[in-house]
Amino acid sequence: MNIPTREECLKLLNEYKVNESIQRHSKAVAKVAVFLAKKLKENGVEININLVEAAGLLHDSLKAVSFTHFEGLSEEELKKTKELQAKYPETGHAEAAYLELKDKYPEVARVVRVHTPKHILQATTLEEKLVNYADKRVLHDKIVALKDRAKHYREKYGFIMSDETATAYAKLEKQIFDTIGIQPDKLGEYIETNNMC
User: Fold this and answer.
1) Nearest to residue 29, comparing CAs of 154, 191, 186, 158?
2) Distance, CA of 133 to chain centre
């Protein structure tokens, strides 16, 4: 299993010219996912924490392929965005990241591929489910409730979660938090939201 270190992941984010706000989001998602993974492991659940961290950091590494607005991007970021959009036309950012990472980091690529809400029903491993869930608990770089993130998806992207998807998230959340023994709405109290490294 070839999993990049945290430093290698951060280097990749810089190579892909991922802008600062997406990098902050990715670091926050990784922090939430690692916190939950460690708590699950403490409670006897088998999980690969390094895989969770790497996939959390890299889940939006090719977010630029989905950009339709380019305000605020630096010249370098804009150039890389255009390059990636030309390389992966009509491809969602999760699939593009999978294609980009699969040869060198196949396990990470598989987790990244299923991190969006429409993929929660296709996520099979705990690592896949945990990174997907952590992404749904982080809005920008702040921890929020699932319902708040769902509202953001609806307002920003016009994406409305199906009942089946919402049920899958609720079931996963219950499974995670029943195992680790804290309430989902207390997650932010356990993780320093102002220090999302």
Assistant:
1) 191
2) 8
Q: How many CA atoms are closer than 13 Å to the CA of 36, on its beta-carbon side?
A: 34
The answer to whether the pTM exceeds 0.90 is yes
Structural domains in the chain, CATH included, are 6-195 (1.10.3210)
pLDDT tens-digit map of 113-133: 999 988 999 999 999 999 999
Q: How many whole angstroms separate alpha carbon 112 and alpha carbon 127?
A: 10
Helices (H), ranges, the chain: 6-15, 20-42, 49-58, 75-87, 93-101, 106-113, 126-136, 146-152, 163-180, 187-190
Strands 142-143 and 138-139: antiparallel
